[in-house]
Amino acid sequence: MERLDYGRVIDGAERNIGFYLPDSFSMLPLISAMEPLRIANRLSKRRLYQWRTVSDNGETVCASNGMMLRADHSVPPKDDFSLLVVLGPFYPERSNNPLVLDWLREEVEKGTVVAGLETGCHLLADAGILDGLQCTTHWESMAQFKETWPQHKVSMEVYEVDQRRLTCSGGAASMDMMLYVIEQHHGHELAASVSDSMIHPHIRHGWEPQRMDIRSRTGVTHPDLIECIELIEANIEQPLTPAELAGLVGISKRQLERLFRRYLNTTPARYYLALRLETARRMLENSTMKIIDVAIACGFKSAGHFSSRYYSSFGVTPRESRKER
Questions:
Q1: Residue 6 predicted with pLDDT over 60
Q2: What HEC string does the chain produce?
Q3: pTM
């Protein structure tokens, strides 16, 4: 991780942090990122941080959970921020406000450190300020991100820091990212004390994975089967055959089939198909991508084949599934 220069003392606090909130932003990453700043002030008995919220028009914003929050500023705000934290809307592809994108580009040109939380990373990519940089986003929107910006270097890690840009998977990981920022400013002891105060016993490093490991998620303990599931999850768009999976793991196809029957009570092909369809359902529910694009991203060669498989699995068509969200 590189060390960042967060700028000068502003407005009586050592650092002024901005939070951009679009309509339908997620409340969890906002609170996870904001509370460590408040606790750092309390524990240090100093005004290390102050923060301001920004919305498109400076008025009340509705979070995805229905809670309302009144913003301090409209875009572009008059405040100077040493760190600007950008949250994204529930459907980031619908957020194409050119005024916001221009403001983000201007902040980068001014030297402001800019962070994207969860789908806020999509807004940073849309503004063109992640080009050539390592970044991350929430694993549920990862496939959509890769489809929209295939040129970007995106990881499945908790957060990334690259050339004055921070990107974070969101949720509780926003806490880990902000604890990293506090440690950069004021050392490990304060960051650890803030973490302890929040009953957060382990500060995750940026390079740690977002998701629980496969053993914890599935209950599978056999190392060959775990490796196979890892390969399946990494190859959704271009599925591997059972024979290819077995060859990559270093076992026979028959051995692979026995492992799936014993530990998961299914076949490799059925497990693979179920995972691809579940990925497709998340993409339909969390984006406005065309159905054919979702089908291709999940390894289906035609919309008709995809729709048939989807209906057999979920009892509704992809189009009906999208209407229900």
A1: no
A2: CCCCCCCCCECCECEEEEEECCCCCCHHHHHHHHHHHHHHHHHHCCCCEEEEEEECCCCEEECCCCCEEECCEECCCCCCCCEEEEECCCCHHHCCCHHHHHHHHHHHHHCCEEEEECCHHHHHHHCCCCCCCEEECCHHHHHHHHHHCCCCEEECECEEEECCEEEECCCCHHHHHHHHHHHHHHCHHHHHHHHHHCCCCCCCCCCCECCCCHHHHHCCCCHHHHHHHHHHHHCCCCCCCHHHHHHHHCCCHHHHHHHHHHHHCCCHHHHHHHHHHHHHHHHHHHCCCCHHHHHHHCCCCCHHHHHHHHHHHHCCCHHHHHHHC
A3: 0.80
